[in-house]
Amino acid sequence: MAQENPTATRAKAYQLNENPLIYGTIAEIGAGQEVARQFFRAGKTSGTVAKTVSAYDMQMSDEIYGVEQSGRYVSRTRLENMLDTEYSELIKRLPATRPAASTFFAFADTVAAKTREASRDCHGWMGVRFQHEPGAEPSQIIAHVRMLDEKNRNQQECLGILGVNLIYGAFKLSADPGKLVDALIDNLEWGRIELDFIEFEGPAFPEVNNRELNIRLVTSSLTPVAMFTPDGNAAMPADLLFKRQVLLLRGSFRPFLAVHQDMIQSGIESFCDDLATSQKNIVFFCEMNVARFLSEGLDEVSDLYDRVTSLTESGFHVMVTSHFRYFRLSEYFCRHDKRKIGFIMSVDNIQTILDDKYYEGMDGGILEALSKLLASDSRLLVYPNKMAGSDEITTIHNVAVPNHQKHLYQHLIHNGRIVALEPDTDRLTSFSPDRG
């Protein structure tokens, strides 16, 4: 876990300030000028910072960076407009007056931080456009950050540290993008931020693999969830989830089997019928959880990239997560919006969900967990299992559950929170599910 160390952050800023060949602009909207402040506090700032700017007024912002057609000022497009404007101005005006070996950069962020007036999602976009060598075409790193501190002041401090880490990484760690990603939370305590999307591009990163780096955000504990679209690209969770209901199947998918396909098809049909909606209003994910394997040091993640690639090439949206318990996933989705969630699972997973040991450490035990798991009228869509070497089929109606949980279990079935999937029996095969 990274430990907060303001002195170390200022040391990074000072190291950049001491280099007369690194020079640029810092533009910040939404949480003060916290990145610039770190450089000023470090000393010798005139060696690095050509200009700082903070255009809070929307009309002023539009005058400088152009009218935001989406109306969203905390957005990727606004960040890219800021980087375009500031970097272009820098390159147009300064190279003739600076040493020939100079490298230039523009840093920008646009965030919605905590306010007294409103309770809102605290998040933002941050990026740096830079030359990795004198005269080079620019390279770029952009990231989406969620700020988890409860106080505005703490969020500001966190952004300042993160911004220094990003600029420092661009100039000092660009040869190793994986190491650069890990270093973004240097000098920050775990749990203060989440980075749920990152993208590298340009000549500084000739062999970069953005899919691999976004998986690394999860395995390095920078975010609990990374999402990928069928074209193989990393995606912003908010974009994929906007006005859509969520359906997912957890598995290792090593390999993807015909029974997985049948579970998915049965689950989609049932979920659409239940919601009286079409498939276009639902986003389905193959979800792979890495929490247990990371904590136990197992080699489950070694081929994670290949499995994500295989699933996206098969036309699926994919999630890589570190939320071990199902109800944590439900909390994650509800944090984005109140929505119905469908969890496709094998009937054998019911025994795990009704196991009190699964909820050790929770004050409210299984009742607290189920209240979170089934929030927003969510569903467990349960696929039957045919026992190996037998014609016996286990369903939600004959699966063995603990005696003291039977009334609770029947209550969940009666109220439609546990729903039986009913594929054709000739499609059923013996299946040992991934537990999670």
CATH architecture of the largest domain: Alpha-Beta Complex
The shape is: elongated
Enumerate the strands of the largest sheet in spatial order, edge to edge or round the barrel. 8-7-11-10-9-12-13-16
The fold-level CATH name of the largest domain is Maf protein
How many separate domains make up the residues?
2
Instruction: Output the radius of gyration.
Output: 25 Å
Structural class: alpha/beta
Discrete helix count: 15
Q: How can the largest sheet be summarized?
A: 8 strands, mixed
CATH class of the largest domain: Alpha Beta
* Mean pLDDT across residues: 88
Describe this structure in words.
The longest helix is centred in the middle third of the chain and has 21 residues. The chain has two domains: about 200 residues, CinA-like (Maf protein, Alpha-Beta Complex); about 190 residues, HUPs (Rossmann fold), CATH 3.40.50. The protein has 15 helices and 16 strands. It has about 425 residues and is of the alpha/beta class.
Give a brief description.
With 436 residues, this protein is of the alpha/beta class.
Features of this protein?
436 residues, alpha/beta, Maf protein, 2 domains, 8-stranded mixed sheet, 6-stranded mixed sheet, elongated
